[in-house]
Amino acid sequence: xxxxxxxxxxxxxxxxxxxxxxxxxxxxxxxxxxxxxxxxxxxxxxxxxxxxxxxxxxxxxxxxxxxxxxxxxxxxxxxxxxxxxxxxxxxxxxxxxxxx
Length: 100
What we know:
Elements: E1 5-13, E2 16-18, E3 21-27, E4 30-37, E5 40-43, E6 45-50, E7 53-62, E8 65-76, E9 79-86, E10 89-99
Antiparallel strand pairs: 1-2, 1-3, 1-10, 3-4, 4-5, 6-7, 7-8, 8-9, 9-10
């Protein structure tokens, strides 16, 4: 199953558990999306979807400053998992589909 859709993530971060919502869309043969959490809504960058694998980057503002996060993961049914890289190192994430 594809990563296209709306997802609620669960991320273990240095500042505690975060649960942003991401939306990944296909438009004209390319992919785009957004991530929304307590710090606001940001556009996803460099979004790729290949089969059940996906990747994207996002600039997010945290209490520790602004970070560019790089996500990579896989989809299994209505669940996804993977890791995101920060300047402080990699961290795991999981997610569940809210809508297709």
